[in-house]
Amino acid sequence: MSNSAQTSASSRIAALLDENSFVEVGAYITARNTDFNMTEQETPADGVVTGYGTIGGCLVYVYSQDASVLGGSMGEMHAKKICSIYSMAMKMGAPVIGLVDCAGLRLQEATDALDGFGKLYLSQAMASGVIPQIMAVFGTCGGGMAVAAGMADFTFMEEKSAQLFVNAPNALEGNYKAKCDTAAAAFQSKETGAVDFTGDEASILAQIRTLVSILPANNEEDFSEADCQDDLNRMCTGIEGVAGDPVQALSMISDNHFVMEIKKAYEPSMVTALIRINGVTVGCVANRTELYEDGNKTEDFESVLSGKGCGKAAEFINFCDAFSIPVLTIANVNGYKASLCSEKSIAKAAARLTYAYANATVPKVTVVTGKALGSAGLTMGSKSLGSDLVYAWPNAVIGTMEPDEAVKIMYAKEIEASDDAVALINEKAAEYAKAQSGAMAAARRGYVDDIIKAEETRQRLAAAFEMLYTKSEDRPSKKHGTV
User: For the chain, what are the domain ranges?
Assistant: First the structure.
C-alpha cells in the first residue's frame, strides 16, 4: 500500500480539481502482459487514474498513480495512459499535473515497461516549453520516475513520508537512511534543488491550484492575467528597510502582497518567485542578504553569486521566457562567492545565467537596490545584457568594485608614500564613487534609465511592464544555443 496516509489516487484528484469537474479517460485499461503470473494479478486502470478537469475553471489534464496496484509501478499500459494524456494536453494547450506514487519499473514487464518510461520521457521532452508540467510526489518516486520528476517544470513533495530517489539511500556507498536520508523531501528541496515546494498533502494541493491560477495555460495563449484589485500607485513605504530580504520587498511591490517563492529552501541567497503586477504574472530573480521568518531575522548572506544560485536563477528565467512571463530582477551583488567548492562550478554556472538573461526575449526590468559590481553585477540583468529598463535607488553602487578597493589599486604608489594613507584613500574613494560608481554616474552613461525613489518602486514597475506589454524581439536564426 501507499506510504502516504493511504489516500487513494482518485481522492487526490477530487481534492485538487474543481468539484465534479473530473472526467476519467481509459478507466478500463489493464495490463496485458501474461508473464510471471501476471494473469493472476488484478491491475485495475493499470495502477494510474488519468483524465481531465478544471482548476478555477481552467482546463488541466491529470494522472494519479495508485500504489495499491503493484506499487503504482510503471508498466506498458500504465505509461501508455499517461502518454495519451500528454498527447491530449498538447493538442488542447493545457497543463499536465502528475500525482506520483510509483515504485519504479514494473519488473514483470521488463523491456515493455522500460519502453514505457522512454515514451513518457519523450512526451515530457516534446511538451517542455509548450505546456506547464507539474508533478507532486506523495509516496514513492523511485528510479526512472525520479527522472520524470526532474523533467517537470515544478515539483512538489509531501514533507514527511514521500521518497524521491534514483538510488535509494541505503544503496549509496558509505551511507544509510538513518545517517542521511537522501530520498527525503528535506534533502531533495534543500540540497539538490530537485523539489520546488514541500508541505503536507492538503497544502501541496492548494499550492498547485494557486500555481495553475497564475501560469499561462501554454506558450501561445496567456490565461495568467487577472483584474488588478490593488492600487497601482500604492507607495512601498519602508521598503528600503526590508531590501535585504527580497521576498519582503516583493510583497510590498506585488498586487495584494502576493508572492509565491520557488525553491525556497535551495540556495536561499538567490530568490526566485512569482508575483503579480497590474494583474499580470511576473517572474522575479533577486539577491538576498537577509532572511526573515515571522518578522525576525534568522540568517545573513554575502551579497555574492554562487554556482547553485546562478543555476537556480537560470532555470527559472528559461521557464519564464518559454511561457512569455516578464522578468523582474532585484540586483544587490558585489561579486562571486569565493570558496574552493564554489570555484568548481561558478564560471560555468554564471555563464549559463548570463546566457539566460541575454537569450530571454520577454520584457525585462531591473532595479538595483544596493550594489551591482563587476561582472557579477552585469550578470544580474544589466542593461548590457539586454534589460529593457534599468532603475536604481538613489544610494545604489554600480561599477567595477568597491570605491576604496579600486583606489587602493589605482593609487598604490601614492598611498604607500603618503603620511596619512587613510585620509588619502577616503578622499580618492569619494572622488571615484562620484565619478564612476554611483547611480548618477551610471545614469549619465546610459547604463541606468532612471534613479527612482524606493517607495515609488511598485508604481514605476507597473508603468514599465505595461509599456513593455507588446514587446517583440528577434534572435539570430539557429536551432538553439549551446551554453
Answer: 9-214, 239-396+438-467
